[in-house]
Predict the structure.
Amino acid sequence: MATAGEAAALVLVAALWGSTGPFLRTGAAGLEELRHRSHLRQLLAEIRFLGLNYKYMVPFLLNQCGSLLFYLTLASADLSLAVPLCNSLALIFTLVTGRMLGEDIGGKRAVAGMVLTLLGVTLCVAGS
């Protein structure tokens, strides 16, 4: 059975993973406009563009903090609970954050999917 601390850590992981996705997309805007003739120069230009762009790096680092917390939490959490909980809640956090940023999330079907996902997560947690 998951402790309250483990559950809170897994929800935080889902929040870090899910809420950073839309910000990563926003921060990477303009990357496709970089054009270089050689593949190596293209790669280096893209790394420089992303590495020096705080609008990309801040969400990226927060996302990586979520991955580190996930790794640390797996030492004590039940794997059959941790993976579905984090992945399903990350999807919900992505949709909510995207909606707050003005992205189209799909209307009533997306909301119904979020409700069903929350119901499934609740059953998963209650059953463990």
User: Anything to note?
Assistant: The helical segments are 4-27, 39-51, 54-73, 79-100, 108-127.
